Amino acid sequence: MQVTVVKSKIHRVKVTGADLNYIGSITIDEDLMDAANIIEGEKVQIVNNNNGERLETYVIPGPRNSGEITLNGAAARKVAVGDILILITYAIMDFQKAKKFNPSLVFPNEETNLLN
């Protein structure tokens, strides 16, 4: 049996930009991506704590140590700069492996989005 489990989570980051005229995706500081074990192009669920919106898109890397969290394209309409987000990725794996799997959980500084 296969199950879907949380692979990684970046908990409580602040939106730094919203670019409606971009093709699509979310730009994430590459340091945060590395810490959370997220790769370029990976599907990510975005949970907006300010308005309850939930959406999915793919990740593109932003400049390291920038704290950048920018929603691009249509997703830009679902956030406001300053909103607090939780970013989650999932993996499908064997049930027994999933019971032992430890996700990558990242808790950056909520004001700067930088790793502590």
Automatic annotation (TrEMBL):
Superkingdom classification of source: Bacteria
Bilayer-spanning residue ranges: none
SUPFAM superfamilies found in the cross-reference section: ADC-like
GO terms for MF: aspartate 1-decarboxylase activity
Gene3D superfamilies (UniProt xref): 2.40.40.20
Catalysed reaction, written as an equation: L-aspartate + H(+) = beta-alanine + CO2
Entry annotated with the keyword Transcription: no
Sequence positions that bind substrate: 57, 73-75
Keyword annotations of the record: Autocatalytic cleavage, Cytoplasm, Decarboxylase, Lyase, Pantothenate biosynthesis, Pyruvate, Schiff base, Zymogen
Keyword Lyase: yes
Alphabetical GO biological process terms: alanine biosynthetic process; pantothenate biosynthetic process
Post-translational modification: Is synthesized initially as an inactive proenzyme, which is activated by self-cleavage at a specific serine bond to produce a beta-subunit with a hydroxyl group at its C-terminus and an alpha-subunit with a pyruvoyl group at its N-terminus.
Required cofactor(s): pyruvate
Quaternary structure note: Heterooctamer of four alpha and four beta subunits.
Name this polypeptide is given: Aspartate 1-decarboxylase
Species of the source: Urechidicola croceus
